[in-house]
Design brief:
Elements: E1 3-4, E2 15-18, E3 22-28, E4 31-34, E5 45-48, H1 50-68, E6 79-85, H2 90-102, E7 111-113, E8 130-132, H3 137-150, E9 155-161, H4 164-178, E10 184-191, H5 200-215, E11 220-224, H6 227-240, E12 244-248, H7 256-259, E13 268-272, H8 283-290, H9 297-305, H10 310-315, H11 320-325, H12 329-344, H13 354-359, H14 361-386, H15 395-399, H16 402-423, E14 427-432, E15 437-442, H17 446-470, H18 479-503, H19 507-538, H20 545-558
Parallel strand pairs: 3-6, 7-8, 9-10, 9-11, 11-12, 12-13
Antiparallel strand pairs: 1-2, 2-6, 4-5, 14-15
Length: 566
């Protein structure tokens, strides 16, 4: 049973302990910052890091699996754990390590690093007992240099922190680029050790850095520093709308904090490096179950301080990748517009009235334009995301504003349909024949009716062309292929609709109009959205960022493109 206690008598960091015949120590930065200063006072940790917390739970889960597995992996032995929170502070990490060593019966203990990438630790003569599960920075710097070469970037700039990680990384990069005759390293900017702290010196340093980047001609800015520093830099880059190309090291490439910054797209595009990773079998079920009954001190602290986040932590990543694949919030607009299209099909049933005639085709034209604009904005996201050769002045980059794309495209259709409804509104009309009276909807203005259909057909054709081109890109969810089919169906339906519609009279006209609207709507619902629902319910293993990353890697490897890994 794990117990919770403060470290060395001070209520500074967290500590979880479970006894065993063989003890495994753990040192994790569960908090990223500590209020250390020259002034006296009690120390406290802040900036809770959910990833580090989950790392501790992976360790505990692994130890439990070894202890409880049948048949026993280690007969007659039980593994225990002793885990400390370093709060991202070197002195606390040293103190925790010494505390662990004091409890060991053996004079020599092995150290296993899961995130320590320093090249110095590879020197076996100096660190004979150090092992790690992650490559050293030597491999990462070579990968960054290869990335720069691959995309033919001629000038780069390096921003590094004044610590072992940043200094050795930047020195390695400088050495590699100096050996490449066609690559110029424009500048190296070293951040102070306390750069993420809010003080006047750091404000001045940040202003100097942003000014230097803004005036720079570098095609890529390499940020070889920790996540908290990058967060400060990116916030400033967003405010200045720098729109540059950034290269992320493994220290922050998967940072949820950085990616969730409001307006992050204004900072530019990011190329990141991550170590190859696999899902830990049974860990997801363990995480879900542990919230039903606390099992260790670290979890108790988490639930105490973040009760509202518990369920979010379990569900995080469950649906995000597949929802992002269909455009994120654009998906809601797309569903709303499709719902409107389905509802409008009922306006063609029954006896025509002025109201039913007005809401039929004009409002369908607006709703369907909104739907197609969402799909087109989603296709632009995919196109820009994988078109690495686009420069920042490219037309595609300028169009990569989903809200603006949707507003402009729908706005043009509104400009066609609003005058139609105001000045030449469709209306119910009676025609008297010898043996019958025919009541049907008159279009009001056939020119505006044809313009509405032609505009939607033009949008569908543009979507079709983008989607057809996008089929060459890595797409785990087959977005481009399915959009191609749905747009092709739409075009075929309305190409056949016009001659059939002209040749018919009476109630059959309304039936054909309603059928055309329903088939168009079902083609998008069935091809674009329904497959994603299937994945979320029945193929949850595909609804995972690791699955997407692995698919993209295999896609480029099959095409003979060099895949850069760290």
């Amino acid at each position: 049973m794990a117990v919770f206690c403060p470290c060395s008598g001070e209520k500074v960091s967290l500590h979880a302990y479970s006894p065993g015949d063989i003890m495994i120590g753990g040192v994790f930065p569960i908090h990223r910052e500590i209020n250390r200063s020259t002034l006296p006072g009690q120390l406290s940790c802040s900036s809770y890091d959910i990833r580090s917390f989950l790392h501790t739970q992976v360790m505990i889960h692994g130890i439990r699996e070894i202890n409880q597995r049948t048949p026993r992996v280690l007969p007659n032995f039980t593994i225990g754990y002793d885990i400390y929170d370093t709060c991202g502070d070197v002195s606390l990490a040293i103190r925790a390590t010494l505390q662990l060593l004091r409890r060991q019966s053996e004079p020599q203990s092995c150290f296993i690093g899961y995130s320590a990438t320093s090249q110095l630790l590879s020197r076996k003569f100096k660190f004979p007992t150090f092992l790690r599960t992650i490559p050293s920075d030597e491999h990462q710097t070579k990968a960054i240099a290869e990335l720069v070469t691959k995309f033919n970037w001629k000038t780069v700039a390096i921003v590094a922190s004044d610590d072992e990680y940043g200094k050795y990384g930047s020195e390695n990069l400088e050495d590699l680029f100096s050996k490449m005759k066609d690559i110029c390293n424009e500048f190296i900017f070293i951040l102070p050790g306390n750069f993420s702290q809010n003080n006047s010196n750091n404000h001045t340093c940040l202003a100097d850095l942003i000014s230097k980047i803004n005036e720079s001609s570098a095609e890529a800015i390499i940020l070889f520093t920790k996540e908290s520093n990058v967060e400060v830099i990116m916030e400033a880059a967003i405010k200045r709308s720098l729109n540059r190309r950034w290269i992320a090291t493994d220290a922050w490439s998967t940072s949820m904090t950085v990616s969730a910054l409001a307006g992050i797209e204004m900072a530019g595009e990011v190329f990141g490096f991550v170590s190859k990773r696999n899902e830990v079998p049974g860990f997801k079920d363990y995480v879900i179950s542990m919230f039903n009954g606390t099992t260790n001190g670290l979890l108790e602290d988490y639930l105490t301080h973040y009760p509202l986040c518990s369920n979010q932590s379990v569900e995080n990543g469950e649906s995000t990748p597949v929802v992002k694949a269909v455009g994120g919030y654009l998906c809601l607009l797309e569903l709303f517009s499709l719902l409107a299209c389905f509802c409008l099909s009922f306006s063609f049933a029954g006896k025509p009235t002025n109201a039913s005639c007005m809401v039929g085709l004009p409002l369908f034209g607006i709703a369907f334009s909104l739907c197609i604009s969402c799909i087109l904005a989603n296709l632009l996201q995919i196109f820009v995301g994988f078109s690495f050769q686009l420069n920042k002045a490219s037309w595609a980059k300028r169009l990569h504003q989903p809200a603006a794309v949707v507003t402009i495209i729908t706005g043009i259709q509104l400009a066609l349909c609003v005058p139609w409804l105001c000045y030449y509104p469709p209306h119910a009309n009676e025609e008297i024949f010898r043996e019958s009276i025919l009541k049907q909807c008159e279009k009001g203005s056939y020119r505006l009716f044809i313009a509405m259909l032609a505009y939607n057909a033009f949008l569908a054709l543009i979507c079709f062309l983008f989607a057809f081109k996008g089929k060459q890109l890595p797409d785990l969810y087959n977005n481009a292929s399915l959009i191609t089919i749905s747009m092709l169906l739409f075009l075929i339906v309305w190409v056949f609709f016009i001659p059939i519609y002209i040749s018919l009279i009476g109630r059959y006209k309304s039936a054909i109009e309603s059928a055309a609207i329903l088939i168009s709507s079902y083609s998008i619902l069935g091809c674009h959205l329904a497959p994603k629902c299937y994945i979320m319910v029945f193929r949850k293993e595909l609804n995972d960022e690791n699955a997407i990353t692995e698919y993209i890697r295999k896609h480029y490897e099959q095409k003979g493109v060099a895949v850069v890994t760290s």
